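Dear colleagues,

As part of the handover before I leave the project, I'm documenting each prediction I ran so the next person doesn't have to rerun anything. This entry is a single chain, and its sequence is reproduced below.
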Amino acid sequence: MSIVSKDDLLRKQAEVKNTLESFTCRILVCSGTGCVATGSQKIYEKFMEIAKDAPGVTIEFGPHDKDAHVGVKKTGCQGVCELGPLVRIQKGDDVIQYTKVQIEDCQEIFEKSVQGNETIERLLYQKGGKVSRGPEDIPFIAKQTRIVLKNCGKFDAESLNEYIASGGFQALEKAMFEMDPDLVIDQVDKSGIRGRGGGGFPAGKKWIQVARQADPVHYVVCNGDEGDPGAFMDGSVMEGDPYKMIEGMIIAAYAVGAQEGYIYVRAEYPLAISRLRLAISQAEDRGLLGEHILGTDFSFHLHINRGAGAFVCGEGSALTASIEGKRGMPRVKPPRTVEQGLFAKPTVLNNVETFANVPMIIEKGAKWYRSIGPENSPGTKAFALTGSVKNTGLIEVPMGTSLREVIYDIGGGIKGDAKFKAVQIGGPSGGCLITPHLDVSLDFDSLKKMGAMIGSGGLVVMDDKTCMVEVARFFMNFTQNESCGKCVPCREGTKRMLEILERIVAGKGTREDLDLLDELASTITDTALCGLGKSAALPVMSTLRLFRKEYEEHVVDKKCAAKNCTALRRFVISPERCKGCSKCARNCPVGAISGQIKKPYVIDDSICIKCGACESACAFHAIHIEA
């Protein structure tokens, strides 16, 4: 049935709510990329098989008054990726959160928690003697403020009906029937929302500039490229709640007078692409997308464009060039994208998370949105929390939340109770924060003062076993590989910086190399063509500033205190522990170890290739890396 009016939308919402309430139980299987990778698809299929064969149970609607209606649904990312595969058992308002579920657990869950009312304690989240039964009881989830991610994990990610039941498209209806385009733009502008893709430019200002362009053809483009290593926020929204982002794009199109829109998604997100295609198709079938939306004269068509995995296509002009079928390379500005973007037409370009915020801003108002977070960076921010932290996963917190709260309250602290060393924020275009920064506000302006940036929201936590020189080399290697090559500073400068860093970790660096790194970093930052090039040196600049002593140890003492740099390792056999069994010598691939049976063996540093085979072979722990 097409939805061609406000009344149709309200009727559909009431109808779906009644349908959902008729379920005796819903089995919500996390089908975000993380849980799919650990086997959740097979768990979903197993629950479907069990439910179909169970007596007195139906998974279809019909005149089965005596049957239990069981819904087996694929949800988006439930957030606690460290504990996947995740399964929620929902009976009305009562929800049980099961963690690390395996195929062999499915039958027991169905019998005890679906058909019965028992809870299987061993599958619940447990920490410090406390057992968490529901998702909101888990500190990782309880301490978040979920706005963009509030639906992820709670309903069928592939169902338009369930999105409508949650209040979906009410903001679009309000915008189209109660507000004119100027008022919509005014609300977005007054909300103060800044682009969540990395730059932090006020979204409302972009919309204003596009709307006032004289050219009658305007476009709306969503950046779903998300190329930062370790980042998966936008991917999770597209997988878990695609309609929210689509609704935000339709509202933007209505506001700026666009009839065509594009979602740019990297091909490495096949699940997101699949669910976006399904969402667009369902929305078109219901009259919520395409011609005459909600029975009005407003039409908007949405297309998906798959990127080829080029990091540079996260930059606006490179992204639009890629959609046009050209090589993804940034261009000189001005003109800006708001003046000449896609096909040289005025274009609103925001990322997934930004568009996903729009429906709630329209529905609840700019004042509500500004009540969350600091004055200059209102709202929430989604982060991908990874690295040496106990609880990794997808989180959403108010802007202005401190690193300490994220790492210790939500993340549960450092793995193995190790010592916190640093966090890389903002991906390869970001910088490092250290212990004195733990209480710094996570917002655009505060981080800029620290020489870092929020970026798209990647947070990689590092402990004291991490070599910061190697971290800088890793990110510089990524940036250099991803350089489009258009401008000399980025193309050649990043290559020279990578060569220097590789010399340093190989034990061949000099003090002069550190000065040259500083000089190259400043030059690239000042002269590169695009924003990605200008931020390419940030990881090196921040680690040089914060961990200068570590760099000097590498070039002067030829040591890596973290024992990560292979070339700077020195394997030593402890005479007190060595039993003279010769196993280390027999496993050495280059014959660098010599000695006599039942007497301590020795390693010849001039021959040793630092492979670690001897350390792995020693049963007496007599071999160690000398710091």
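The first strand starts at residue 25 and ends at 30. Residues 61-65 have pLDDT under 50 and may be disordered.

All the best with the project,
I.
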